Amino acid sequence: MEILVLYDNTDSRCQEIGHQLEHHFRKYDVKTCHRVSDLITRLMAIGTWNKVLVCIVSQRTMLNELKTFRDSYPELKLVLVLPNQEEQTIKMAHKLEPLFIGYLNEDQHALTTVVERILDRKNKRIERFHQ
Question: What is the pTM of this model?
Answer without folding.
Answer: 0.89
